[in-house]
Design brief:
The chain is mainly beta. It folds into two domains: 46 residues, no CATH class; 181 residues, Galactose-binding domain-like (Jelly Rolls, Sandwich), CATH 2.60.120.260. The protein starts with a helix and ends in a 7-residue tail after the last strand.
Length: 228
């Protein structure tokens, strides 16, 4: 190939050939155990600081380790740095035939924006209990009705505030302080939040490659920055 041909080929590839995208995960962990006041709507608030996220959000996960209490008493939500709220639990198991919800004692689970099995009605799916805690990967509850509503309201309310709300956001918009709120809304039991892990997955900006004469591939520009 002559030099003129190589120059034209390089220019075309720089314009039209982005590199392969790679998902990057950024995790923030809070391992400070906190007792959740029994039968108290004031609940507890935990702060999770996130920084260095770039690219477009493709998924968000929340890992929770909660022991004790009764799962049907719990109400929990997550608020991002710009104020958007996702409902993680809204009295799991409460419906028209069960006003108290599930009596299992805790969660050791991952709530995943890509999951489809609803944590509110987890006993309707195949589920596993280990040491009293629900395990596995579940979709966030997502029900925005008042947690003190009648059971029939839960049965007729569709999830609209799940973790998939964050998909497509610019990564920079999720940097900052996230707020986790959890309350035990009925008397009996003493739940404890042992840890929470927030994981944000993004696809960074594409990298550009060029192929020169003789079949040699050259890495021309990379704009991805690994974080976490």
């Amino acid at each position: 190939m002559n030099m003129k041909y190589n120059t034209i080929l390089l220019a075309l590839l720089l314009v039209s050939a982005p590199g392969w995208a790679q998902t990057v995960s950024t995790s923030s962990t809070n391992n400070t155990a906190a007792s959740i006041p029994d039968g108290n709507p004031v609940g507890i608030t935990e702060k999770i600081n996130v920084s260095g996220v770039v690219g477009t959000v493709t998924n968000v996960q929340v890992q929770l380790d909660i022991t004790g209490g009764f799962n049907g008493d719990l109400y929990a939500y997550l608020v991002d740095p710009v104020g958007q709220m996702v409902v993680l639990f809204n009295r799991p198991g409460v419906d028209g035939s069960n006003p108290f919800g599930y009596s299992d004692a805790g969660f050791n689970i991952t709530l995943d924006g890509a999951a489809t099995n609803d944590v509110h009605f987890y006993q309707n799916d195949t589920y596993s209990i280990a040491g009293g805690q629900l395990t596995g990967t579940w979709a966030a509850d997502g029900r925005i009705n008042d947690p003190q509503s009648a059971g029939s309201v839960f049965a007729s309310t569709l999830p609209t505030a799940g973790l998939n709300l964050y998909n497509g956001l610019n990564g920079g918009g999720v940097n900052g302080t996230w707020t986790l709120f959890i309350a035990d809304l009925a008397g009996g039991g003493n739940p404890t939040l042992n840890s929470v892990v927030l994981t944000i997955m993004t696809v960074p900006e594409p990298q550009t490659w060029a192929v020169l004469g003789g079949g040699v591939m050259v890495w021309v520009v990379i704009r991805r920055r690994r974080v976490g």
